[in-house]
């Protein structure tokens, strides 16, 4: 057995950092670089801020992973969890078993749905929710006697998770080629990013028309009788915070209706106020047949996700049980009572504190301040976003809209400068920095976040100039 390599001198032999390096295999991490750099160990949080083991405080500009919507402390959620743990710490939902937290949460989600929905299936993560939605679609088309209608179209730069099927739906090369994905029957259509994909002289609406025509052509080429569903985030998150152009979803949905293709809205990031409405579907004019959500559903205090289905999909599932065999899908922790109790309490807090309206208000401020501070910056190509989700894209050549060579790792350098300025930042593919702070962020904290970020961008600019790169 090879002994673990020694921790770098910066980490004491028995320090938490050294123990991390010795034993933890981190998700989405350069494993080799991690042995040198070590972890950033977070020990506590309060509001929009987290604290590391050295006592340094940071604003969490992405709410962890776009998810800790109520920030990093909440006594009501602690109470909801402990009370439920005492009452009934676990029960499952297989073969018709049930419990009150799950019933209440399903009811609340159906009441709040952006379009009439019929039933809710629970899982534990966004990936599982999307896998479950995909299996529902396949099962339903088997039940309806059209087993050939199974293909699914998602979009380049979409993000739907990392399990085998959800990673296949994801439209990012790094999630595919190194893992022998996508699986068969999953296709990707163009990303609706006007800044990069729009053609000279083309209006945003013309661009939307072109993308809808491309989708139509793809469905026709594949054979409409073989295409079952279209998966889309209302606003793409991890692929770069891409807000589709005006009229995009209206035109896309007309194509889907024409070919009897179901629409799945992946609201894992956009759900629960992020885009300034309760659902991203409302912001973008989507009328999904199936809706997946997670993250802010429980403010991420515990893992839980949900798949909402409309009556038509549910009826086919129900009929299918007798026609082709029981819907044999579910997780041990589907609708876990403690997670469900925390989610119920989270949704009550959103209502009581009118947090969706708050997100719309501070979101508008964040969009405005980011643009005022950075639109004219030589290093910034585009500031984009809606509500309380945004991205700032770094470019080498502003006029040509050209990013730096990936090897320069400019976004990673900005993340490091952010840390020095008291911000935890998240770099996305294509040198974009994401903003998706907790919904509870105050206007003063938005100002502070933008101010510190502006300083970090200036510092990066100065570094690049010194290196002759800007
Ligand atoms: N869908 C979207 C839109 C997401 O942003 C994510 C995670 N960032 C997922 C699905 C996958 O969720 P999870 O990491 O909980 O599996």
UniProtKB/TrEMBL annotation:
<keyword id="KW-0032">Aminotransferase</keyword>
<dbReference type="GO" id="GO:0009448">
    <property type="term" value="P:gamma-aminobutyric acid metabolic process"/>
</dbReference>
<protein>
    <submittedName>
        <fullName>Aspartate aminotransferase family protein</fullName>
    </submittedName>
</protein>
<dbReference type="InterPro" id="IPR015424">
    <property type="entry name" value="PyrdxlP-dep_Trfase"/>
</dbReference>
<dbReference type="Pfam" id="PF00202">
    <property type="entry name" value="Aminotran_3"/>
</dbReference>
<dbReference type="InterPro" id="IPR049704">
    <property type="entry name" value="Aminotrans_3_PPA_site"/>
</dbReference>
<comment type="similarity">
    <text>Belongs to the class-III pyridoxal-phosphate-dependent aminotransferase family.</text>
</comment>
<dbReference type="GO" id="GO:0004015">
    <property type="term" value="F:adenosylmethionine-8-amino-7-oxononanoate transaminase activity"/>
</dbReference>
<dbReference type="InterPro" id="IPR005814">
    <property type="entry name" value="Aminotrans_3"/>
</dbReference>
<keyword id="KW-0663">Pyridoxal phosphate</keyword>
<dbReference type="GO" id="GO:0030170">
    <property type="term" value="F:pyridoxal phosphate binding"/>
</dbReference>
<dbReference type="InterPro" id="IPR015422">
    <property type="entry name" value="PyrdxlP-dep_Trfase_small"/>
</dbReference>
<keyword id="KW-0808">Transferase</keyword>
<dbReference type="GO" id="GO:0009102">
    <property type="term" value="P:biotin biosynthetic process"/>
</dbReference>
<dbReference type="InterPro" id="IPR015421">
    <property type="entry name" value="PyrdxlP-dep_Trfase_major"/>
</dbReference>
